[in-house]
Amino acid sequence: MRIRKGDMVVITAGKDKGKSGKVIRVVKEKDAVIVEQANMMKKHQKPTQANPTGGIVDIEAPIHASNVMLLDGKTGKGTRLRITKSDDGTKVRVAVKSGTVFD
To answer: Which of 16, 43, 67, 81 makes a 20 to 30 Å CA pair with 10?
Structure first.
């Protein structure tokens, strides 16, 4: 998967289409990402020591990785990625159109 924790992404499909946010977590098993303040859902929680009142809380649900694009800093739009090797031989993520390096 080319998207990593901490990346800024834009959502390209679903109820939150057009929103952008930071990736909180990557779920490799499901090929999904969790984006900050996007794809919110309600969850009923029992009372615990950490949350003694319990109740209904809002949490972020996973979004499939095919429904998000990395946000390009130069253009401010979503971009596709290309993996290239740098001069010292390490792999680097590069934006296809603008050539912005993401590592």
So the answer is: 43
